[in-house]
Amino acid sequence: MAPKEDMLPPGWEDLDRQMGQLFMMGFDGTSVSPQIRSLIEDYHLGSVLLSAKNLKSAEAATRLVLQLQTIARDAGHLVPLLIVLDQENGGVNSLYDEIYIRQFPSAMGVAATGSKALAHEIAVATAQELKAVGVNWILGPVLDVLTNVRDQPLGVRTSGDDPQEVSQYGVQFMKGYQEAGLATCGKHFPSYGNLEFLGSHTDVPIITESLEQLSLSALVPFRNAIMQGLDAMMVGGVSMSSAGMNVMHACLSDQVVDELLRKDLKFQGVVVSECLEMEALTHNIGVGGGTVMAKNAGCDVILLCRSFPVQQEAINGLKLGVENGIIGRARIEQSLRRVLNLKARCTSWEQALNPPGLPSLTQMQPSHTNLSTRAYNNSITVMRDKKNLLPLSNIIDAGEELLLLTPLVKPLAASAVSLSANESTRVPILDHASMDRSASVMSGESVFKELGRSLSRQRSGRVLHTSYTHNGVRPIHEDLIKRASAVIVVTADANRNLYQQAFAKHVSLVCQSQYSTTGERCEKPLIAVAVSSPYDFAMDSMIGTYVCTYDFTETALQALVKVLYGDLAPTGSLPSSISRSQKIHQSRQHWLVENWNEERDADGLDALLDAVREDCAQGQRSELLGTTYSSFLLRKEDIDEAHFVVRNSSTQALYGFCATYFFRSTGTGVIGCLIVDPSRRKLSIGHSLHSRAIRTLLQRKGLKRFQLGSRLPGIYLGIPTASHVERKRLRQWFANLGWNTSLSRSVCSVILRNLATWTPPDGLTVTLQNADVLYDLVYGWDFARAILDHIKTNARQGVADIYRIALGGAPNCGIIRAKRSTDDMILGSIVVYNERSALAEHMPALRATQTTVGGISSPVISPCADDYSTVMQGLILLAIKQIRKLNANAVVMDCVDGDGNFDCLSSMGFSMLHNFEEVNCDAATWTMMHPS
Asked: N-acetyltransferase domain: which residues (predicted)?
C-alpha cells in the first residue's frame, strides 16, 4: 500500500476528473461561453486563464470569475477553479480599469527605483487587487535575465541584465504576491533573456548558451526563487541547441523538466507548459502528441489558450496516452497531488464564492494611487544631460513653442492568444496577457496625445505635437523643427523598431544644423525620451539629453512631465551592467602595460602568435595564419599607430598584445587586435590592455568614433565568429567593457579555390554583357581623384587607405572600375592585387593559403547603381580573370560586408574563410567612462 501522504483524497479516483485538473485553458469573450462551460462541466477543467480579451472592467471581471466558480461548484467540482492571470504591470496587464485597478511600473521600471522594498509593496498591491476580483494564481514573477539587452522581445518585462539583481527583485515580487494570497508562477524557464529568432512562425526561438553558461547567469533567479518557495514554474516553448543539450521544445523535454528543473534545481512545485497552441509547436508536433510529450517530460499543467477543438484534442490525446500505457497513472496522480496542494494554499470554496469585489478595491484605491505615483516618480531616469537642457525652463521661454514628436505605436501582441488572432506577428509570442486597444495602457496614440496636453498644461507656451512613422523625417517635421524653440522626440523600443532610431538621429542632425535669422549656426535643443526599452540610445551619446520612462502608461508620462519641467528631481538609474561598468573596471587586477618596442618585442610577439594559433580548436582555421609581427605595422604617414604589450621583463615573453590605429582622414580610433596568451587568460591582462588602448586613442586630436576590428591591417576585421560559443563569449566580454556588440555589422573574408578549373555561373557573362556598364582596370595616381571621390560613398574605416595603397602599388596592385556607358560615372570599384604587393603584407589570409594566390579587396558599389549584385559580380568576375592570368590557384577576397553579400559570392563559388563582427561606437562613450 502506498504511504498515506501519497494517497489521493476521497473522490479523485475517476481518471477524467483527474485529467481535467491538469489543464489550464482560456476562451474568447467577456461572458461565459458554451465552450468554457463545457470544459468545466464535461471535462472537469481545473484552471481557467483569463486575459484582456475577457476582462473589460474590475466589476465585470468579478462577475465573470464568480460565474465560472459557480458553474464548477454546481458541476460537482471537489475544489474551486484556479483563476489565472498575467499582471506584470507596465505594458503587460490583463486587467485594466481606470477607476479601480492601479497602474504600476514594469519590472525594469521598478528596478530603476533601486528599492527592493518598493518592489515588495507593488507586488502586494497588485495581488490584492487581483484577489479582490477573484483571481487566485498570477503568472509571475518574470525571472529572465536579459543577457542580450539589444534585441529581445521581453525588454522591460525583466528586471535587467544582472542575475543577482533580477533574482533579488524576482524574490520580492514573489513574496509580495504570496503575502496577498496569490499562488505564483515563475517564468520563462530556462530563460527567454537571449533568444535567437529564425524569423518564421514555424521556427522555434533558440537558446544557444550551454548549461554551464545558463547556470552561471540565466538560472540564478530561478534557483533562488525555488529556494524561497516559488509555487509553480512555467517552462517555455523554446528550443535549446548547445553542447550537451539538443531540445526542440523545452516544455516537452524531460532533459529540461525532469532533469534540469526537478533534479538539478530541486523544484517540487507545479510545472506549467507554455501554450501548446503556439504555431511552431502545432506545426512540428501537433497538440495531441505535444500534450503527451509535455506530460511525460514532467509538466503538471498543460496550457491551451483559446481554441475549443484544439483543447478537446489535447484532453483526448492525454487520455489516449494513458489508455495506451504511454503515460503511467502514477504520473497523472503525482501531478494531481501537486495541483491540489497549490489550490489548498491559495483558494477555498468560501473565498471562491465570495470575492471582495468593488468595496475592497474602493478601500484600497487611495493608498494604491499614492504607491503608483511614488513608484513612477522614483523610476524616471535621466541617462545623460550633457548641455543641461533640463529642466525645460533652462532653454525655452514661456512664450516659445515646444515640439513633441511621437511614434505611431500599435498595441504590442504579448500572448500566444494574440498570435492566433494576428498571423502577421514577426516573432513567436512568448506569453499570455493579450493586449486590447481599448485599454489606454496600450493605446499609444491616445497616451501620447495626453502627453502633449500635459506638456501644454504645464506651461503657457504652445506645444506642437505630431507623429512619425517608418517614412522618416518629412518636410512637415523639418518645418516644425525650424519653428520650435526646443524638440522632444519619443521612441518606443527603437532597437527593435529601427525606423525610430533612424528618425531620432535624423532629427538630431537637423537640430544641429539650424541657423539663426542672422545666419549664425544655432543648435536646436533636443531631448530624446525612451518610453519602453531604455537601451534605445543607452550607448549612443549622439543624443546628448536622454531620458527613460520604461513604460508609456499615462502615470509614467505624468512623472516624465514633472521631470522635464523641474517639478520632480529624477532619481532612477538604469538597472544594468552598463551603468556599473566603470566600477567593474576599477575592481580588476591592473597589469603593467608598456609601449610596443619592435627591437625588444618582435620575437616575443611572434611566439605569442604561435601560441594563439596552436590553441585554435581542432578543425578551425586560425585568423592568425600567415601573420607575423610585421603584419601589424602599417608605417603610414596619415595613420597614427600605437601598440601595447604586457610582458615578463625577466624572460621577455609577451603575455598580451594590443594594436591600435588612428585614421586621421575619418577620425576613427581602431583596436585592430587584442590577444592574450591562452595559458594566462582570465587574469585581467586583456582588460588592462584595452583600458590603455582606449585612453591613448582618446588623446588623438579629431577623434570622432571607435571601431573594434580593422580592415587595414586585415587580420581581425572584428570579433571572430568561427565558433558560435566563442562568438558569444567574446561578444559578452567586449559588451562588459562598454562596446555596443548587439549593433555589430558582419564582415568576412572568402576564398575561391581550384581557380584553374573554375567557370562562371551559368548566364553571368551574358547578363554582364547585356548590362549598360563598362569595366576597366587602372593603375597609378592618375586615376586617384575620380576613384577617391567614388569611394566616399563608403565610410567604413580603412577602405580609403586600402585604395590609396592600391593606387600607389603598380604593377602589383590595381583597381577595377565599373562605369556607366552613357556618362562614364563610376558605379563600382574593387581592388585587385598579387602576393608581391604592399597590400598583401597586411592581409595574412592571402599568405596563409598554401598555394599561389591573388587578392581582391574592398568592393564599393555606388548608391546610383541600378543593380547592386550585377555590378558586384561584374567587378569580381574581372578580378578573377586578372588573377587567373598570373597562374594563381586561388582567390582570397577580404573586407566583404557579410550582410547580403555572401549569398552573391557563394553563387560564384566562394566559400567562407573567416567571419567577423565589426563594432562601432561614438567617442563620447569612452569619454564618459575614461574621464581625463
From this structure: 636-708
Residue 238 CA: distances (Å) to CA of 146, 188, 235, 559 = 16, 10, 9, 37
Residue 835 in grid coordinates: 602576393
Inter-residue contact 708 to 734 (CB < 8 Å): yes
- Measured between alpha carbons, how far is 20 from 47 in angstroms, rounded to an integer? 9
Domain that holds residue 448: 380-576
Check whether residue 505 and residue 651 sit in a common domain: no
pLDDT digits (tens, 9 = 90+) for 587-628: 445 788 999 999 999 999 999 999 999 887 666 778 888 899
pLDDT at position 857, please? 93
- Cα angle for residues 223, 251, 3 (degrees, 5° grid): 70
Judge if 399 and 514 occupy the same domain. yes
Q: Is residue 740 part of a domain?
A: no
Q: Is 618 helix (H, G, I), strand (E, B) or coil?
A: coil
The share of the chain scoring above pLDDT 90, in percent, equals: 58
The total number of structural domains in the chain stands at: 4
* Residues 886, 851 contacting (CB under 8 angstroms): no
Buried residues in 37-59 as b, exposed as e (16+ CB within 10 A): bebbeebbbbbbbbbbbbbbbbe
Query: Which CATH number goes with the domain that contains 98?
Result: 3.20.20.300
Q: pLDDT value at position 723?
A: 67
> Does residue 106 lie within any of the structural domains?
yes
Q: What is the pLDDT of residue 434?
A: 33
Q: Is residue 931 part of a domain?
A: no
**Cβ 364 vs Cβ 125: under 8 Å:** yes
Q: Strands 239-242, 206-207: parallel, antiparallel or unpaired by DSSP? A: parallel
Closest CA to 455 of 446, 465, 445, 442: 465
